[in-house]
Fold this sequence. Notes:
The complex is a heterodimer. Chain A is mostly helical.
Amino acid sequence: MVSRLSFHPYTYLTQGTFLRSCSSSSNPSSSGEANMSVASDVMEAGGLGTFNLDHGFPEAVVRGFRSGFLTDYDYHHLTQCESLEDMKMNLQETDYDQFMANEQHIIPVTFRDKALQKLVQEMEFLRAHAVEPLATFLDYISYEFMIDNVMLLLKGTLSGRSANELIKQCHPLGLFKESTMRSIPAFEASPKGYADLYQTVLIDTPVGPYFSQYLQDNAEQLSDASEMRNILEEVQIEVIKNSLHKLYLEDFYRVCQAIGGETAEFMGHLIKLRADRMAVNIAVNSIGTPLNEPAMRSTRHKLFPAVGYLYPAGTARLAEVTDEGQMEGALSAVPEYQKLYASIAGAKDKTLEDLFYEKDVQALEVAFEGQMHFAPFYAYVKLKQQEIRNLVWIAECILQGQKDEINKFVPIFSDSSPWRLAGKLNR
Amino acid sequence: MVRADEINCVSPLCNLGWVEVLTSMSPYGWGQFGVAFALGLSIVGAAWGIWTTGSSLVGAAIKAPRIKSKNLVSIIFCEATAIYGVILAIILLNKVQAPDGEYLFDQSTWNWADMYHAGYSTFFAGVSVGLTNIASGVAVGIAGSSCALADAQ
């Protein structure tokens, strides 16, 4: 039986795993306070006349990369393959070329690893040619993966796995200094060890300020002296990861607004959509878990990002949701989302998260329109990730012989996307 | 005309007003500045445009080499604005001439009114050519860059 791969890695809270809880805290973090952030001084990008002077080359390169996405034609051939070797040969005709030339034993995860390697090479090329403020922007794209990596290292250490194994599992787009990465698994589970971990190691990572902010925000709930230990042991790792992602999104939004111009417009829209998707995922996934208890509502409310179309009225309503029926009312703050929710009845096998995700993909495709802004870089990484997920899905389906499930991937720049088909039918 | 005893200024650098200031500047100075602006500012515009288009073209041609020949035309358009500036500078230069032979060394026979007129005309012709070519170079550059990216994407 084929495991249903989720199309979105952002299911922050798995169902039913909330054992312990923080004591209820009073208010969600307001965007009025000055949060700690990674980049303090961000330059503005130039307008029409001066953007190309600094950033013309990287932007043109990323648009060249965009032409390398797999097309409907390629997907059609890939889904007709009988084996993974066939898939590899078909991919040789596309932009992927010889990316798996030396692989002997091919499994679906090989596609993911090799394609990610190619993506990392491309991002490093772009980063090498980037000056401020594009350099800061590209760094921010990688911080998301760094947060995931750091939490993976922490979680793996607490479960007692070896450092090498954990580092191999890290997402390649979010690697930071090797020595820092090695010192995370090396800390001891004593009060001094935890303090060291925070003071020396986590601060060193580029995403250190988010940890500081998180500890600061939660300091009032903790009574003991060894705060770090309490947090790591008592608070679920997922809640920490979610809070870090929330802080990252808010910081990224601030940076995009500081860059100004069309970047602020395009990226503002994309980040708001992402934040809303995160909030809706949390709300939907926490129904029926201990996080949904009335006492825990404020904690859940604290997990919603402070940016987004749903903030602040919609998130306040989402925080009060107890079951699926109330979701439509909660989403009424933004009429588009309400319509999206209502259309679930029409779409048979898609969940609310899937519909939100497709909306995200549509907005990411639009990010390539309009020139002289940074959104194509962000959109390229996100859409390439989706393409890699598509490849792995197709490979899994071929391996397991599930030909009828094979077309359930989200195509990119495809003529058969739901939003393009809807446009054609209306004419 | 202001007479010297009507002004209140006591500094040794006093002048009789704008008339004295402007008539003290040689019309040949005005003219040559016009030539310089026609040449220099046009080339600034063309360079700006080529920079804008060229960076996009070079980057996009990495993944899509087919766009090179077609989009070279955008760069040629920017180059054309520089050529217009050079042509106009040469024309203006030819208009800056010394007075006719037998009157050259006798300044009292020079037609100063005409010479001022010629100087100012040359200057402003050059400045207008230069500034408009800056604008046109930048505009063609932005359009060319968008064309290159649209072709590659």
